Amino acid sequence: MSTELQIALVLGTAFLWITVTLTILSAIDRPERKARRQERRDVRADKRRIEYRPVAAGSHPQGRNRHPRARRLHPH
Questions:
Q1: Interatomic CA distance for residues 13 and 20, integer angstroms
Q2: Is Transmembrane helix one of the keywords (predicted)?
């Protein structure tokens, strides 16, 4: 066997070994990463949820027309 062929064989084997190892490791970690991603998504959804508070009795006088507040968009 020539030296160039031996070097190519060693490098090819090393590349294949690294590829297989990383594939196996990422497959093992996938369910945990998916669970963490779902948890972060749930936390963000909880922050966006609006909590409504009941109106105190007598806080709205019956005789007046009340103008609703204009909604403002806030950039992220």
A1: 11
A2: yes
DSSP state of 16: H
Instruction: Check if the beta carbon of residue 66 is closer than 8 Å to that of residue 60.
Output: yes
Read off the pTM: 0.41
Dist. CA 46–CA 49, nearest whole Å: 5
φ, ψ of residue 34 to 5 degrees: the values are: -65, -40
Q: Tens digit of pLDDT per residue, the chain (76 long)?
A: 799 999 999 999 999 999 999 999 888 778 888 888 999 998 888 777 777 777 777 665 555 555 666 667 777 6
38 token code pair:
């779902």
Distance CA 76, CA 71 (A): 16
